[in-house]
């Protein structure tokens, strides 16, 4: 069934600007693509569209905004989110991550419960697309893929590849075994959604070498070949933490950047998380190779002694997106990722100003919204129109309400003292939502035109 919305649309057209479209009609066709968009004033009544479309009239101080894209999340680690963050990265992986992932691989019922709950939490928080790290278990990752397809949200699912491990019971025992398992998962994941029309296939397999310390060079080389053969995306961690970097340098004699480069995995459909220790020269190379970076500012604060140099990466032409990095990050809310990204950039700017105040290092709140929508969509290869309200774009959107229409008080944590219904939504209203809003302000979420949370009442 087609959808028709009347109300305010808000979107990031460029990294530095927000467009507010007051009192517009937006129509979504039965396949979930935007088919019409125009100002309502003096226009055709939405009830005159043919057929029996669902009509959603947005009250004052309510707007549609594109859904968020989370570019780095460890699905199995949702099991213990908010635990062990006092540890350095390599110890944390040994004491928490590997154990949790192995546990889910051995317990399909638990995996199903964790992944279904994860999907629910994501839609509550406005996330419509997620790039996921799974486990090494082929069938467990199919449970993850099915949970996201059933929940109606986009999931790019990575079956972990790792033929080296500090936990002997949690590893693939050779490069050949690991590649065969990755190939099997890709085939089964594609088969899971093959009966559906292309626009309804919400889950996709992703080549996922965990990181250099758990992967032999032969494995990385073979995974690069597999990514080309199967035309699938690649994801991993890169230049993340001091203890990881020291380990790679000691074991391999070069950086993980050089290893990924010489094995063919720095490619135009790849997303690398963290990248806090990359030089300008290395980031320029990522830009040339069209590699995207997933900035995870909260987990960087815990596991990296360096902040991500976001302003420099963006100015060097790297496509930067944002991730929560659950469970290295303790919040599944992309709004917190945006806030932390801005905060870190402001601290960096203040420190840099003591030496040279000629160049700002700030990533501001508007730019963070762009990174969380259009930046993420670009990294996932969803198309130039994704993350916008444009004819032809897939309708992945959240409905945000700032003021309760009955009490006229600000909703959730928001307080307003000048909310005359005849007044328009302003940039200041949106900034306040960005700073203080939460799931209480989100009253609807759609992916490919389908309402996935909660069910919105027809009018």
Automatic annotation (TrEMBL):
GO biological process terms held by the UniProt record: guanine metabolic process
GO cellular component: cytosol
Required cofactor names: Zn(2+)
Chain ranges of the Amidohydrolase-related domain: 63-427
Keyword entries, A-Z: Hydrolase, Metal-binding, Zinc
GO MF term list: guanine deaminase activity; zinc ion binding
Pfam families per record: Amidohydro_1
Keyword Zinc: yes
Protein name as annotated: Metallo-dependent hydrolase
